[in-house]
Here is the input.
Amino acid sequence: MTMLLKQQTQIIAEREQVLRRQKASVNFLLTDLTENGEISREINVIDIENAMAKKTQLQKLHGKMFAWGFLMDVIEIGLLVLGFTKGIWWPVWLGIPIVIGLGIYVSKLYYDGIEYVCPACQTQFKPRLRTMFFARHNTKARVLTCPHCQQKNYCLEVSSK
Here is the structure.
C-alpha cells in the first residue's frame, strides 16, 4: 500500500511539472500577444520554452548591468560629495577613470550578452558594436538593418546565451 501511494505521489508531481510548464507557456504567449499584438510565426512548445529561457537570461543580464551601474553611481557621487564638502579632489581624479573603466566593462558585458531578432524574417543576429551603440532604440528593441533580409526595423533584443 505504501509503495502505491509513493508511486501516486510521483505521478502527481510529474503532472504538476507539466502543468507548470504549460502555464508558463500560455503566460508567455499572452504577454507576447499583449506587447506585440500578434504572434508572427508558428510557435511550438520548444520555441516557447527557448524564448522563456532567453527572457530569463536577458533579465539576469539586465540585473547585472543594474548592479554594476549602481556601484558606478555610488563611487561617482561619493567622490563628488567628498570633493565638494571636504575640498579633497585627488580621489575624484583617481576614481573617474575607474568609473569609466567600469562603464566600458558593462557595455562589453551587454554587447556580449545580447543579439537581435528581425521581425520580418525571424533571423537572429548580432550587429557591429558601433552600429548597435548608436542605433535608435526603446527598452526592448533597436532600429537595425537585418543582414539576412536587409530590412530596417525595430529588432527585438534577446539573450545570446
About this structure: The chain has two domains: 1-39, 40-159. Residues 1-39 form one domain. The CA atoms of residues 111 and 144 lie 14 Å apart.
